[in-house]
Design a protein that fits this description.
The chain is of the alpha+beta class and 305 residues long. It has two domains: 184 residues, Trna Endonuclease, Chain: A, domain 1; 76 residues. The protein is 31% helix and 24% strand. The protein has nine helices and 15 strands. Strands 3, 4, 7, 8, 9, 10 and 11 form a seven-stranded mixed β-sheet that branches. A two-stranded antiparallel ribbon has the order 1-2. Strand 5 and strand 6 form a beta hairpin. The radius of gyration is 21 Å and the shape is globular. The two termini are 28 Å apart.
């Protein structure tokens, strides 16, 4: 998929033209691994906490495998990410499933060991503390209840996409294939384009039960905003916390994932320190301090770009 830069030589936006950006010759796999490690939102379009990179995974036959990136999502599920330069080889699916078989057996103790090794033993923040900070939640969930698998490459081949779609829709494997391309403008700006080749389909388990994200008539954003307004009762200066909003939402929507609330509020907070990890957020709330917010007032609040 080509990427275009809007070029406007005169002060008239309507006269601008679209200039295609050229693909770069950057070492895709090495750079992409660093970029995704630093910006995990780009992997799943939601917050992720990276806990390992090139983690040593020992198999029964004493061989060693190294998943490129290992992380946790807001529900404590293990996220395994495999990156490939160029076209995906046919054996990438087998490689990913090998990682999945290893990750599936990880105990809480082992997950904490992986995190400590990755984050540095001298770092005082525990996995639980960093998880709570990252996802702005009051609860630390049970870990590794489910696996989420990702393949990221410059080109996802039809064979790989067909097999992954089969695993996802017939056998209930939560696998996503992402295609990344890097472009560079004449001015030297580097642009990265991502496209989900597999992953937008519902996940169907072997018993034919469909597993979906929140799929109510109202979006998660709308539900959170309505309940924030209800909690505030018209007082635009009143302070609220994700926990306050959770208590209202769960009464109406018992199946609503409560960790979604903190992430949605963060996404829509103008000045939150992690705002850049949440593309698509609206200017709705103003972050006061950890876990505390009020409505955004553009007349007195200085927006942070």
């Amino acid at each position: 998929m080509p990427i275009f830069k809007l070029k406007n030589e005169i002060d008239n936006i309507e006269s601008a033209i679209l200039v295609p950006a050229a693909k770069t010759t950057l070492e895709m796999e090495a750079h992409l691994e660093c970029w995704l490690e630093n910006s995990p939102w780009a992997i799943a379009q939601e917050p992720l906490l990276i806990i390992g990179r090139q983690t040593s995974a020992y198999q029964e036959e004493a061989s060693t495998i190294f998943p490129d990136l290992l992380g946790l999502d807001k529900d404590g599920n293990i996220v395994v990410i495999e990156l490939k330069k160029g076209r995906t080889p046919r054996d990438v699916v087998a490689q990913l499933l090998e990682y999945a078989a290893w990750a599936n057996d990880l105990s809480d103790e082992k997950i904490n060991d992986i995190f400590t090794h990755y984050n540095g033993a001298e770092n005082e923040k525990s996995l639980e503390k960093l998880f709570i900070e990252t996802f702005e939640t009051d609860d630390f969930p049970s870990l590794n209840q489910r696996l989420r698998l990702f393949i990221a490459a410059e080109e996802i081949t039809p064979t790989v996409s067909k097999v992954c779609r089969f695993l996802r829709q017939v056998h209930g494997v939560d696998v996503t294939c992402l295609q990344f391309n890097v472009f560079q403008t004449e001015a030297g700006d580097v642009l990265v384009n991502s496209e989900a080749i597999v992953g937008l389909e519902d996940i169907v388990n072997p018993k034919k039960v469909v597993t979906q994200r929140w799929g109510g008539e109202k979006s998660a954003k709308q539900i959170v905003r309505e309940n924030v307004d209800e909690f505030l009762g018209g007082d635009k200066n009143k302070v609220f916390t994700p926990k306050d909003i959770n208590q209202l939402i769960i009464k109406k929507y018992p199946s609503f994932n409560k960790t979604t609330v903190g992430c949605q509020i963060t996404s829509d907070s103008v000045n939150h320190t992690s705002r850049h990890h949440y593309p698509g957020g609206e200017d709705l709330y103003w972050w006061l301090e950890k876990g505390k917010y009020r409505l955004y007032n553009p007349e007195k609040d200085k927006k942070v770009i």
